[in-house]
Amino acid sequence: MFGKGSREEGWGIQVSHVDRKFGKRLVLQDIDFEVKPAEIFGLLGPSGSGKTTLVKLMAGIDRPTSGTVVVGGVQMPRLDMLGKIGYMAQSDALYAELTAKENLDFFASLFGLRGRGRRRRIEEVMELVHLTDSMKKRVSTYSGGMKRRLSLAIAMLHRPRILILDEPTVGIDPALRVSIWNELRDMSQSGTTILVTTHVMDEAEKCHRLGMLRDGRLIAVGTPGELKASANVTTIEEAFLAFGGVRG
Ligand SMILES: Nc1ncnc2c1ncn2[C@@H]1O[C@H](COP(=O)(O)OP(=O)(O)OP(=O)(O)O)[C@@H](O)[C@H]1O
């Protein structure tokens, strides 16, 4: 199911008994699950349920209060893993006064991409997010959706083994959303492990497996089919409500 990447060991993510506290507030509680190599794993949950807090631990930009996060066999956070992970945060980390091309060049340098390969890869990712014609425009003139697309292009630039995307398709129109999901599927088929957060139910259906978060707890994990079957419902939305104990 997961294509040729499934033969490669070690590029999964293991989250083991993770708690994250901010002061006295327990924002993540005993989170325990695994993302398999080359899988598209979706984290689904309402606003404030802890999705961003959890993906930051996996991206290695925060550390758990207790428990462990292991990515590609390495316990996080670890600085030398950052080059192997593509992370797209919810708020865009772009230089507004620079053009898209200058932003891409900057991140390409950080990732050690050089020469003709770098130019080709920049063209590829910009084509993918339909921004080729806006390559030379300043990011300050971009719309919100264009900034999201540029952030996605940057996250994919260095062909990371693990791609962590926090709400990647917010503000992106439906046609482009479809092409981005097609690309995510292709990447997973060629071995990239993808963790994506969403509250869009039809996107959740496209993931190989889902984890449902509610109030900092993982209330269910499984394929979309398994989750619907075990809740005896026909939609992911209903399954989420059933697992949360709040049937509509
Ligand atoms: N640095 C912090 N200090 C204190 N509280 C925090 C901090 N970061 C997050 N929180 C709290 O943790 C909870 C979970 O936040 P988080 O951003 O992880 O949720 P989310 O599921 O990603 O929500 P959304 O979909 O709205 O982004 C929230 O109540 C938030 O206020």
Automatic annotation (TrEMBL):
Instruction: Please tell me whether the keyword Glycosyltransferase is annotated for this protein.
Output: no
In Gene Ontology terms, what is one molecular function of this protein? ATP binding
Q: Which PROSITE patterns match?
A: ABC_TRANSPORTER_1, ABC_TRANSPORTER_2
Q: Which UniProt keywords apply?
A: ATP-binding, Nucleotide-binding
Q: Which domain of life is it from?
A: Bacteria
| Gene3D superfamilies noted in UniProt | P-loop containing nucleotide triphosphate hydrolases (3.40.50.300)
| Ranges where the ABC transporter domain occurs | 13-240
List, alphabetically, the InterPro entries matched.
Answer: AAA+_ATPase (IPR003593), ABC_transporter-like_ATP-bd (IPR003439), ABC_transporter-like_CS (IPR017871), P-loop_NTPase (IPR027417)
Keyword Membrane on entry: no
Q: What is this protein called?
A: ABC-2 type transport system ATP-binding protein
The record lists the organism as Alicyclobacillus macrosporangiidus
